[in-house]
Amino acid sequence: MNFSKKFENFCRMSYEDFEYLLNKIGPSISKMDTNMRKCIPIQEKLAVTLRFLASGDSFVSLSYMFKFSPQAVSRCVQEVCRALVQELKDEIKLPQTTDEWLKIAHDFNERWNFPHCLGAIDGKHIVIQCPINSGTEFFNYKGTFSIVLMALVDANYMFTYVDIGCQGRISDGGVFKNTSLWHKLEANEILLPSDEPLPSKTDLMPYVFIGDGAFSLGKNMMKPYTGVYEKGSIKRIFNYRLSRARRIVENAFGIMSSVFRVFRKPILLNEQKAADITMTCVLLHNFLRKSKTSKTSYSPPGAFDSDKESEFCPGSWRNDQEDMSSFIPLRRVPRRSGLEAMRVRDLFAEYFISNGAVTWQNDK
Asked: Does pLDDT of 2 surpass 60?
């Protein structure tokens, strides 16, 4: 076998990482030969699964390539995805201590000039075939059937929390309220940092998550002002600064969907299998972003959006987005906001226009 760039393109990872994963999941996916037939080698099981995630090819097409039946391909993909989820589950960890949250906030301030930010949150509808006897439970606003991937991302494009499987029919604002993260926030079970003043300010300010118009404004959730504002106005500057930091989650989704092209078209599997495939891709994203041998091929220079002296430079992943027909954004819906949440947003806006200068740099 030629362990070159062609291998990396085929499996979307280096041969070293392929061997590492093989050693991890090998015992759980290996089978014994019988008198009737030989079992499929574990190397081929992992390879066919990675190729399915990388290309989105049908099981029939992959059966021609790997020389075993479509039914066997289907079983391999399900088995390997479950094993990968089990072995890589620790790749995604919601911070458990105040210091861990403060580390994320420090990174957002250093890299994206947005203080007190604990993560960028967003969601995508993953289009699937209509589940049997599901009625309209998975029918979304685009007229297709889907499950929802809701994710929280840190300043380094790493997923820190994901929730997969919410039915597409649920209003997009309600998706977040159906996640365990929202319930923990409401129950005050997450050790968020205590309110502190912004740099050179005196008003106590909460630590926040940032999202787009699909979310409700809250004390710990910031979203842009609605409407169009004049250049240089306080609200336009706030919207720019929030959007600049929030692009982190867009880029994480974008890189994942451009590398794992199973999201190029509807996933023709039931909702549970589609959720397993989506979780596998999310975990592999974090695994490959941290890998010394696969990071540069998974997210090469120029892959992410960047800014150069206020000029927006789109990442290379955006060239593929027109083909990502099964990756639908959440719908933005106008929502009422509480007075305290609006006051917090106004204080952030005042800080950005008076003290919070932008440090221009390329993304890494």
From this structure: no
Q: How many CB atoms lie within 10 A of CB 117?
A: 26
CB contact at 8 A, 306 and 313? yes
Interatomic CA distance for residues 98 and 214, integer angstroms: 27
Give the model confidence (pLDDT) of 264-309 as tens digits: 889 999 999 999 999 999 999 999 999 999 999 999 988 998 887 6
Helix axes 339-354, 234-259, angle to 10 degrees: 100
Could you tell me how many residues make up the chain?
364
Q: What is the C-alpha to C-alpha distance for residues 85 and 75, in angstroms, rounded to an integer?
A: 16
For residues 282 and 118, what is the distance between their CA atoms, to the nearest angstrom? 19
Candidates 155, 34, 22, 161; CA nearest to 89 is 161
DSSP summary character for residue 322: G
Q: What is the pLDDT of residues 196-243, one digit of tens each?
A: 999 888 899 999 999 988 888 988 999 999 888 888 889 999 999 999
Query: Coil, helix or strand for 348?
Result: helix
Query: 361 pLDDT exceeds 60?
Result: no
Q: Would you call 108 helix, strand, or coil by DSSP?
A: helix
Burial of 362 (0-12, 13-18, 19+ CB in 10 A): exposed
pLDDT of 1 above 50: no
Residue with tokens 């989650």: 249
- DSSP per-residue string spanning 224-235: PPSS---TT-HH
- Angstrom distances, CA of residue 137 to CA of 131, 134, 271, 277: 9, 6, 11, 20
Residue 185, both tokens:
């926030």
Dist CA 314 CA 289 (whole Å): 19
Q: CA 148, CA 170: separation in Å to the nearest integer?
A: 9
Q: Which residues fall within 8 angstroms of residue 111, CB to CB, at 6 or more apart?
A: 155, 156, 361
